[in-house]
Amino acid sequence: MKYLLVVIFLFPLYTLANSCDPPLVALEFLTSKYVFWGTVVKKEYAEDSSTYKVTLQVEKHLKTIEDNPKTFTFTKKAEGSYTGISSSFEFHMDKGEKWLVCANYYKGELVFSYYCSNSKPYTSMDAIPKQELEILEAGESIDLDKIVFESMTSRLSTLKEYKGPEPITPLDSLLALVDKKYYDTIPDNHFENIIVSINTKGEISTVAVHRKVKNFKIKEVYGVMYPAYTPIDSLDTELQKEIMSKLNMGKKWKPATFMGRKVNSQVHLQVYFKPGKAPYSSPVY
Questions:
Q1: pLDDT digits (tens, 9 = 90+) for 230-258
Q2: Nearest CA to 88 among 111, 116, 119?
Q3: How crowded is residue 280: how many other Cβ atoms within 10 Å of its Cβ?
Q4: Which long-range contacts (C-beta less than 8 Å, at least 24 apart) are formed by 178-182?
Q5: Which residue of 167, 176, 199, 222 lies most exposed, with the fewest beta carbons within 10 A?
Q6: CA distances from residue 246 to 35, 179, 191, 251 in whole angstroms, order as listed
Q7: Where in the chain is the domain with CATH 2.40.50.120?
Q8: Tens digit of pLDDT for each residue in 188-214?
Q9: CATH topology of domain 32-142
């Protein structure tokens, strides 16, 4: 229960992502094979009505690749009115509809979905939310080095292409070096909230305490938001200084990666104190 309460405290400005929330637009753009705007020009049901095929005529490729097909055909599960089986994840496509599509290959088949994706029908491209359209149209110029990836605020749970950073030196071995005099008299089950920022080289760039006094600014790059923390030395307790000093001794981390490329990232952890035990940390998140 304590862990849950701390997570809520750390992220009052964000709604924690549902496992099927769409990825952030910029990140789905990068991971998709094709991103295009098109119109449904054909819809045909299978003989047993269990599936249907839709063909979309491309009006604009938002992601340029070598082949740039003029049409795409997708196979979709038929609506419950045809199959007799309804699903909460059911959606349908009709001839004449205009769609923004982010498509990728899955088990050799090109697919996309209305759910867990930014693929959606719109009356026109102008109906796409302005910021989203701006990101899509500038998608090919996205600079990953400008993004700070943070699993709790970037909906990264929906992207298998992201792997978070990992400490090379076990954090608990560093925390075991914290001088006992700093926590000998603190209350049972005391904990500290710590933020660690790691650059693309796996170097620690910032270690800061998350505190009730707001010491961060929300930054946004390509629609990807993260809290940028600033250490406030004058407010740090001796225990907090000792914790950060020891964590800084583990200078090298295995950097986070996105689509196989090293990226900047930020992680949160709690450091716990219990009688008769050395300080220890929660898993980073």
A1: 777 778 899 999 999 999 999 899 999 99
A2: 116
A3: 14
A4: 178/239, 178/242, 178/243, 178/246, 178/278, 178/279, 179/242, 182/238, 182/239, 182/242
A5: 176
A6: 46, 10, 16, 10
A7: 32-142
A8: 889 999 999 999 999 999 999 987 666
A9: OB fold (Dihydrolipoamide Acetyltransferase, E2P) (2.40.50)
